[in-house]
From TrEMBL:
Cell wall biogenesis/degradation is among the record's keywords: yes
UniProt cofactor(s): Mg(2+)
Keywords for this protein: ATP-binding, Cell cycle, Cell division, Cell shape, Cell wall biogenesis/degradation, Cytoplasm, Ligase, Magnesium, Nucleotide-binding, Peptidoglycan synthesis
GO MF terms, alphabetically ordered: ATP binding; magnesium ion binding; UDP-N-acetylmuramoylalanyl-D-glutamate-2,6-diaminopimelate ligase activity
Gene Ontology cellular-component annotations: cytoplasm
Known function: Catalyzes the addition of meso-diaminopimelic acid to the nucleotide precursor UDP-N-acetylmuramoyl-L-alanyl-D-glutamate (UMAG) in the biosynthesis of bacterial cell-wall peptidoglycan.
Residues annotated with N6-carboxylysine modification: K218
Name of the protein this chain belongs to: UDP-N-acetylmuramoyl-L-alanyl-D-glutamate--2,6-diaminopimelate ligase
Binding site for UDP-N-acetyl-alpha-D-muramoyl-L-alanyl-D-glutamate: S31, N150, T151, T152, S178, R186
EC assignment: 6.3.2.13
């Protein structure tokens, strides 16, 4: 592709010194990946500044650079006001606007994104549609899985991978869209057909200045809906009307809105909800008709996740009978309310709940189904939203008979200091709790004490198989540790 095409596409013609004949053969944001013919886009990062690596990029063969700061470079230089957003547009163009060639579903909200993604994967696959997935657990193309660093990858990776998905005959892309990604413009230039809002509750206040700022970031997905390069497909915003933030989000989109909920009248609704330890039953009411759902997923929050997936499936013209069969066939999602040994005399559940709202939802569910005592093993991540630490501890303390506070990815912080932030918020005259910084020991402590019919919730890490201490990740899997201790107890 000629550099002039990129320049004219992103409309910055008055800021460029370049030779019309320059051929750009790849785009890179990492100087170490630059090859002969690359356009190097300098990103001002949170840890380092890509502008400091321009010379490295040129030495590696960059024929042009895109910058947002004043620099002296010996190659064609394109100056833009925001390289992250310009990168998103340039990458989309370079890979042939892939998001306009395949139906795209974007899911945003504090909780439920991953679960809904896998419910939708099941529904689309059952309907013989090959899916491509981006999310917290992994990236998937059909049945093949690939690790990814971020829930929503940077624009360059994203556009490149969606182009690959199209080459591999993917019929439907389903992606989790984080508020970070929306705010940083990682998905700027993506043409979504369906945008989903699950809920908003406190999280990520280390990144966003306030809850209003967090919500504003989420609303960008809806503002963006229908602003793509092609308007061939029907567009729809799928919104949880039971969440107070839904009003603002509905105002953010000019597109058709499909609502879902349990309490407010909605296009897709659940009634007569019956929660049990082995699954959930409810009456599903939709614009296509009414049916009974018997799902193996546990908890009211999962009813919401199912309703969201039904609304998306209906907007994608999938018949209700196929939607019902898919929902009823799904056993669960990795690390989400996952039982370590099903039907054991006491239950050990691993769950990704790492926000106050999700922890409360999961503990409320356990309280509804538990026959005896509840143990919770929970911590809070280091270098992340500190304001949620006392809230997490208070919730654990409120719902569990035996709260055990421990480490969860302390990163560069002292685990004991994080635990102090958590427990300082607890009332001093209240019930006993344990503080055991070593996560393995904390899990062991809970399992060794559990009696028949007790439930132990190990919260916060779900599918993760590491513990991040400092800048290093060490192998650690809650399920494996729990299994080891459970087996040890049997012998
Ligand atoms: C705060 C944040 O989001 N940081 C993201 C950001 O990293 P960064 O700003 O630190 O980048 P950097 O390492 O300083 O590098 C800046 C630039 O210099 C370049 N560079 C660097 C070194 C060199 O030798 N040459 C060179 O060119 C880099 O390639 C890069 O372009 O850009 C990276 C590449 O895209 C991201 O992986 C990284 O996410 C980090 C890992 C992260 O933890 N992000 C979290 C907060 C996040 O985004 N989470 C949400 C989900 C949250 C949730 O829902 O739970 C997500 O979508 O993942
Ligand atoms: N709809 C929901 N409402 C509230 N809590 C939920 C909901 N769905 C799941 N949860 C809880 O939140 C946890 C995370 O769920 P899930 O991974 O589906 O959400 P997510 O939005 O992808 O989270 P993240 O952005 O952190 O990856 C689950 O383990 C469960 O405890």
């Amino acid at each position: 592709m000629h550099l002039k095409d990129i320049v004219s596409f992103i409309s910055v013609s008055n800021n460029v010194s370049y030779d019309d004949n320059i051929e750009v053969t790849s785009i890179e944001t990492d100087s170490r990946k630059v090859k002969k013919g690359s356009l190097f886009v300098a990103i001002s990062g949170f840890t380092v500044d890509g502008h400091d690596f321009i010379d490295d990029a040129i030495n590696n063969g960059a024929v042009a650079v895109m910058v947002e700061k004043e620099v002296q470079a010996e190659v064609a230089t394109i100056k833009v006001s925001d390289t992250k957003r310009a990168l998103a547009m340039t990458s989309a163009m370079f890979y042939g606007n892939p998001t306009s060639k395949v139906p795209m579903i974007g899911i945003t909200g504090t909780n439920g994104k991953t679960t809904i993604t896998y419910l939708l994967e099941r529904i689309f696959n059952r309907y013989h549609k090959k899916t491509g997935i981006f999310g917290t657990i992994q990236m998937k193309i059909g049945e093949e899985s690939f690790p990814i660093q971020n829930t929503t990858p940077d624009a360059l990776f994203l556009q490149r991978k969606i182009a690959e998905m199209i080459q591999q005959d993917v019929d439907q892309v389903i992606m989790e869209v984080s508020s970070h990604a929306l705010d940083m413009g990682r998905v700027f230039g993506c043409d979504y057909d369906i945008a989903v809002f699950t809920n908003l509750s406190q999280d990520h206040l280390d990144y966003h200045d306030s809850m209003e700022d967090y919500l504003r970031a989420k609303s960008l997905l809806f503002a963006q809906l229908g602003n793509g390069y092609q308007e061939n497909n029907k567009k729809a915003a799928v919104i949880n009307v039971d969440d107070p933030s839904s009003t603002l989000l509905m105002k953010s989109t000019a597109q058709h809105v499909i609502t879902y909920g349990c309490h407010t009248t909605a296009d897709v609704m659940a009634e007569n909800i019956q929660l049990a330890a082995n699954g959930t039953k409810f009456t599903l009411k939709t614009i296509l008709g009414t049916t009974e759902i018997h799902s193996k997923l546990i908890g009211k929050f999962n009813v919401y996740n199912m309703l969201a997936s039904v609304a998306v499936a209906i907007a994608s013209d999938i018949p209700l009978v196929d939607i019902k069969e898919s929902l009823e066939s799904i056993e669960g999602v990795k690390g989400r309310f996952e039982s370590v040994i099903p039907d054991h005399k006491y239950s050990v559940i691993v769950d990704y709940a790492h926000t106050p709202d999700s922890l409360e939802n999961v503990l409320q569910t356990i309280q509804e189904i538990a026959e005896r005592n509840i143990y919770v093993v929970v911590g809070c991540g280091g270098d992340r939203d500190k304001t949620k630490r006392p809230l997490m501890a208070q919730i654990a303390h409120k719902y569990a008979d035996y709260p055990i506070f421990t480490s969860d990815n302390p990163r560069t912080e002292d685990p004991e200091a994080i635990l102090k932030d958590m427990t300082d918020g607890l009332p001093s005259d209240s019930k006993q709790y344990e503080v055991i910084a070593d996560r393995r020991q904390a899990i062991r402590y809970a399992i060794q004490r559990a009696e028949e019919k007790d439930v132990i919730l190990i919260a916060g890490k779900g599918h993760e198989t590491y513990q991040q201490i400092g800048h290093k990740k060490y192998d650690f899997d809650d399920r494996e540790v729990a299994l080891e201790v459970m087996r040890e107890r049997e012998n």
